[in-house]
């Protein structure tokens, strides 16, 4: 006899590494979700910047259904048409010449780091192995990527971390210069730090990183897992800066909700990922590739990208008006539809308290650390949903203020 799962079932059957909200969403359409009791929510979380076209977008549903009735999976002993079409489309739309397909952002970053190390060994020798990343950065949950990420809380307690990893300060070029040397193989950087608090890079900072890499024969790796595929109002955030990386990673919005990741690289660099050096069981499978291609082609259009910037202005305007009334934020920042509102001194460290209050008011949001409210909604969120959702979010913030 079948039963309806409850939130208590999570505690009984699931590993305790998450602490989900008490409600269980069961249906989504566009920018709205409904839970088991039929309560409706307006979604500003977007599956952590994943659901780029909202829930059950007909373009993605059609791609999934069509491919699901054709071919699901092949081993990498074979290639397949959807994977080749996706790779070709990514190459044609970016700086890259070659694409490695995988199943997640963590996998994409793992591949990028392994490629950077291997390229350096092949071209310069075993001594060139240092990777520079940044404090408060986040690059995934594999042991290599979590070690490169600049948040020790995610790598502590699992034994010795991989060596050769150094951390500089974000937007501080001098701190990078102090670590840079002939043994540096790569710099990995987010064009806008996500988990670190939604902090966009200064143009001079990224331009300086490019120059330092060129001077020291190191590779520049952009982690665009969260900022990529239209999220910032460009297909990829590097386009805002006029700085071209050697390697770029993509995931999240790339599949619009279907698990997929990609590592993009120039031809010269990609040659080091020779036969047998790396792999991914599900990487480039037909289902994921078909959905990702549909998402990519739909998002990379003038109307959608211009709409991202328009919606950014609407959301910023609402956040500013809320702040004028309640004084809860000290800064509102971000690019496109990846936005952060830093809590004011009076509400230091209390961003997380907004989330359950928002749920009760019928809105879903995120945080980026304890002090930043994060919004990452659908890139095509209807303006009416923005209006109503922000009204609900404001009621949650009013309740936070009333708590004192």
From TrEMBL:
Pfam families: Aminotran_3 (PF00202). Keywords: Amino-acid biosynthesis, Aminotransferase, Arginine biosynthesis, Cytoplasm, Pyridoxal phosphate, Transferase. CDD domains: OAT_like. GO terms for molecular function: identical protein binding; N2-acetyl-L-ornithine:2-oxoglutarate 5-aminotransferase activity; pyridoxal phosphate binding. Pathway: Amino-acid biosynthesis; L-arginine biosynthesis; N(2)-acetyl-L-ornithine from L-glutamate: step 4/4. SUPFAM superfamilies: PLP-dependent transferases. Homodimer. Binds 1 pyridoxal phosphate per subunit. It comes from Vreelandella subglaciescola. InterPro entries: Ac/SucOrn_transaminase_bac, AcOrn/SuccOrn_fam, Aminotrans_3, Aminotrans_3_PPA_site, Class-III_PLP-dep_AT, PyrdxlP-dep_Trfase, PyrdxlP-dep_Trfase_major, PyrdxlP-dep_Trfase_small. It catalyses: N(2)-acetyl-L-ornithine + 2-oxoglutarate = N-acetyl-L-glutamate 5-semialdehyde + L-glutamate. Its cofactor is pyridoxal 5'-phosphate. N(2)-acetyl-L-ornithine binds at residues 141, 280. It is found in: Cytoplasm. PANTHER family: AMINOTRANSFERASE CLASS III (PTHR11986), SUCCINYLORNITHINE TRANSAMINASE (PTHR11986:SF113). The keyword Amino-acid biosynthesis applies. Pyridoxal 5'-phosphate binds at residues 138, 223-226, 281. HAMAP family: ArgD_aminotrans_3 (MF_01107). May also have succinyldiaminopimelate aminotransferase activity, thus carrying out the corresponding step in lysine biosynthesis. The lineage of its organism: Bacteria, Pseudomonadati, Pseudomonadota, Gammaproteobacteria, Oceanospirillales. One of its GO terms (cellular component) is cytoplasm. Belongs to the class-III pyridoxal-phosphate-dependent aminotransferase family. ArgD subfamily. This is Acetylornithine aminotransferase. Its EC number is 2.6.1.11. The modification N6-(pyridoxal phosphate)lysine is found at residue 252. It is an enzyme of class 2 (transferase). One of its GO terms (biological process) is L-arginine biosynthetic process.
């Amino acid at each position: 006899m079948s039963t309806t799962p409850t939130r208590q079932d999570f505690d009984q059957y699931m590993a305790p590494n998450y602490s989900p909200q008490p409600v269980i969403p069961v249906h989504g359409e566009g920018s709205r979700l409904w839970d088991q009791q039929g309560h409706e929510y307006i979604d500003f979380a977007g599956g952590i910047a994943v659901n780029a076209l909202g829930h059950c977008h007909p373009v993605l549903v059609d791609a999934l259904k069509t491919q699901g009735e054709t071919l699901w999976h092949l081993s990498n002993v074979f290639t397949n048409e959807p994977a080749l079409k996706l790779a070709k489309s990514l190459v044609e739309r970016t700086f890259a010449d070659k694409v490695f397909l995988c199943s997640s952002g963590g996998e994409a970053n793992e591949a990028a780091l392994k490629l950077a190390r291997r390229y350096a060994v092949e071209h310069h020798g075993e001594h060139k192995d240092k990777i520079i990343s940044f404090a408060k950065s986040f690059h995934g949950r594999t042991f290599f990527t979590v070690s490169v990420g600049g948040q020790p809380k995610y790598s502590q307690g699992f034994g010795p971390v991989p060596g050769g990893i150094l951390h500089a300060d974000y937007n501080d070029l001098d701190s990078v210069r102090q670590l840079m040397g002939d043994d540096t193989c790569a710099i990995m950087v987010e064009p806008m730090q996500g988990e670190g608090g939604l902090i966009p890079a200064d143009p001079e900072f990224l331009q300086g990183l490019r120059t330092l890499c060129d001077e020291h024969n190191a590779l520049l790796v952009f982690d665009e897992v969260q900022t990529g595929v239209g999220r910032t109002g460009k297909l990829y955030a590097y386009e805002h800066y006029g700085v071209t990386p050697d390697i770029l990673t993509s995931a999240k919005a790339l599949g619009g909700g279907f698990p997929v990741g990609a590592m993009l690289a120039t031809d010269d660099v990609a040659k080091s990922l020779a036969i047998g050096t790396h792999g991914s069981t599900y990487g480039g499978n037909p289902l994921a590739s078909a959905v990702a291609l549909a998402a990519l082609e739909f998002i990379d259009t003038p109307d959608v990208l211009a709409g991202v910037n328009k919606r950014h202005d609407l959301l910023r305007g609402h956040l500013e008006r809320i702040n004028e009334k309640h004084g809860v934020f000290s800064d509102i920042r971000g690019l496109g539809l990846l936005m952060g509102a830093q809590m004011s001194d009076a509400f230091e460290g209390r961003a997380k308290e907004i989330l359950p209050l928002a749920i009760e008011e019928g809105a879903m949001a995120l945080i980026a650390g304890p002090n930043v409210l994060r919004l990452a909604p659908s890139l095509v969120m209807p303006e009416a949903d923005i209006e109503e959702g922000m009204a609900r979010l404001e009621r949650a913030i009013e309740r936070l203020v009333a708590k004192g």
